[in-house]
Amino acid sequence: MALNIPVACDVLRELRNSGEYCDVTLRMDDQQSFKVHRAILCSCSSFFRALFTNGMNETTDRIVDIHDIKGDTMNLIIDFIYTHEITLNENNIYEILPATNQLQVLELFSLCENYLYQKLSPENAIGIREFASFFCKLIFISLMKEIQKQKSGSFRL
């Protein structure tokens, strides 16, 4: 019998929203906090897997501080971890991508890379190149090739 992913995600989201079985609270620098399940976060993030299994205080602490990620951004990432759904747009992509890199949520990181790649145009290529040079090697390499083509007169995206 196959696992019904949408139903499983609905159950996990309900458990999180009700606070049932949540075993840690993530507290952000802006003081927003999120009750979550360690096991769920560990299943999607090598950062959380290392954080919660390292034998240090975070392994058993009820409240764990997460730095350098805004609460609104963390909420979107946590929702994605629980539901595998997210709406990426120009208002959130530049916050979500670095946060997913920090947290090592690789599936979401890949979605962010694809989103940026799909949004490439001659008008925004330089700006995306600057941003991608820090986070998205695939996009950065593609952009550098296209910029070289532009110099030779055959630029297209």
TrEMBL record:
The UniProt record lists the keyword Repeat: yes
Keywords: Kelch repeat, Repeat
Residue span(s) of domain BTB: 22-90
Protein name: BTB domain-containing protein
Lineage of the species this protein comes from: Eukaryota, Metazoa, Spiralia, Gnathifera, Rotifera
